[in-house]
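Technical annex, item 7. During the second reporting period the consortium partners agreed on a shared format for inverse folding records so that results from different sites could be compared directly. Each record opens with the tokenized structure and is followed by the designed sequence. A conforming record, contributed by the partner at site C, is shown below for reference.
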């Protein structure tokens, strides 16, 4: 993408206007000018005070000469008062001749009650301006509520033996627990009813091992059932998992640092002179001690298996690299042991004719995308992993093959089929040509 550059025309040099001497400001004015909030408050205070004073201007009047009531006796004072009251009753049209001082006080109190009170910059006002703003109280209340919720979550997780900051949690199984009781310990990770059903269906209810188990978020009921029924210290590599998957499994369960297993595999491949590393590690259960020891054990298991099948390897006409690459593709295409020899045969038939293999799993491996549906754009590249376009095998395996996939490649099914289709019925449907493959798509999808 080219970069667009824009030039800004230079501003014309205007003749500076003569500077006027600025009026000298008092310290209070300077402080108000620096702080707009304080300036606004000062202006409002002045306006309010002026308004209040404007309403408190009274007309100056001379007070009438009132006799000194203190010189009169009680009877005389009462008589004078009663006489005034009677005078008001007899002359209702005239204004009451009550004390002018009392009228003044009454009028002053009435006006003061109606007039706004002047705001004075007292010490109390200054302290009040330092109080927290109104919006801060709801924020503090919300933060306190979140803190309480977080504390409760941490306590719940800790009661299960887990750590909220990690991607995995630990569960302790004590002696004497049945299948249902053990399954309840994993509530929150999998459905206890589903885990109980798996344990009972596989006949593993009496094989639950006592110990502390690390549960990863992606584990399902089958994974957990396998984990809690095999001896402690055993790490399982599932057929089809790649090196990155194994590395993630080790690091997420706290067995090794992230990247340690991948580094150990590359070092081992250099040491043994392998053309590539992905595909040369045999899936299975391994006693775990370190990333390097696990990588070495997996490679040794693969070599031992190929050595035991030496005659089949020789008669296949395939190199060892080709055997492990094809087996890794078979394991990504199916987990059904019965379907593996058929898929292996179709791949070998296509290779013999120089046809593109059309294995979408190789593209998924390159993109590291195993969930979404692949689009037409994903198959536009000429990458050697794009087996829809490029004939031949990809340059490496695409995962760790299991024993069944290796044996399927060395002992393929007897078929001339060039196409296979996983139908909605769960079966594998074969075709010798593309027309038959299209017909299978209409019938079984």
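Designed sequence (site C submission):
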């Amino acid at each position: 993408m080219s970069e667009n550059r824009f030039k800004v025309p230079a501003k014309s040099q205007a003749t500076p206007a003569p500077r006027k001497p600025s009026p000298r400001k008092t310290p209070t004015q300077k402080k108000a000018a620096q702080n707009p909030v304080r300036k606004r408050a000062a202006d409002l205070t002045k306006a309010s005070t002026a308004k209040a004073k404007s309403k408190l201007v009274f007309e100056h009047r001379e007070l009438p000469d009132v006799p000194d009531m203190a010189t009169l006796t009680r009877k005389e004072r009462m008589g004078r008062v009663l006489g005034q009251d009677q005078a008001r009753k007899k002359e209702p049209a005239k204004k009451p001749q009550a004390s002018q001082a009392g009228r003044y006080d009454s009028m002053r109190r009435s006006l003061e009650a109606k007039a706004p009170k002047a705001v004075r910059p007292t010490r109390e006002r200054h302290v009040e301006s330092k109080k927290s703003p109104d919006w801060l109280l709801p924020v503090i209340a919300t933060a306190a509520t979140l803190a309480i919720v977080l504390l409760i979550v941490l306590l719940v997780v800790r009661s299960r033996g887990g750590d909220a900051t990690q991607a995995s949690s630990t569960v302790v199984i004590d002696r004497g627990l049945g299948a249902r009781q053990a399954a309840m310990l994993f509530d929150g990770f999998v459905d206890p009813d589903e885990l109980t059903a798996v344990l009972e269906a596989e006949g593993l209810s009496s094989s639950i091992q006592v110990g502390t188990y690390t549960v990863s978020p992606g584990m399902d009921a089958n994974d957990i059932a396998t984990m809690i029924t095999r001896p402690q210290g055993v790490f399982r590599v599932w057929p089809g998992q790649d090196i990155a998957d194994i590395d993630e499994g080790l690091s997420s369960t706290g067995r090794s640092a992230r990247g340690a297993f991948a580094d150990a595999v590359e070092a081992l491949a250099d040491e043994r002179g392998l053309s590539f590393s992905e595909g040369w590690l045999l899936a299975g259960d391994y006693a775990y001690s370190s990333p390097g020891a696990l990588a070495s054990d997996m490679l040794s298991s693969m070599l031992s298996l190929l050595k035991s099948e030496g005659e089949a390897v020789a008669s296949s006409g395939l190199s060892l690299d080709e055997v492990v690459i094809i087996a890794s593709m078979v394991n990504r295409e199916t987990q059904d042991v019965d379907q593996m020899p058929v898929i292996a045969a179709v791949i070998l038939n296509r290779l013999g004719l120089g046809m593109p293999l059309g294995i979408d799993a190789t593209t998924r491996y390159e993109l590291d995308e195993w969930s979404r549906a692949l689009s037409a754009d994903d198959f536009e590249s000429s990458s050697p992993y794009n087996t829809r376009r490029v004939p031949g095998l990809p340059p490496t395996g695409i995962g760790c093959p299991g024993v069944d996939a290796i044996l399927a490649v060395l002992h393929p099914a007897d078929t001339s089929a060039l196409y296979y289709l996983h139908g909605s019925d769960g079966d594998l449907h074969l075709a010798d040509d593309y027309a038959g493959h299209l017909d299978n798509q209409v019938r079984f999808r």
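The beta strands are 169-173, 211-215, 234-237, 284-287, 419-422, 428-431. Residues 261 and 291 are 5 Å apart (CA to CA). All partners now use this format for quarterly exchanges.
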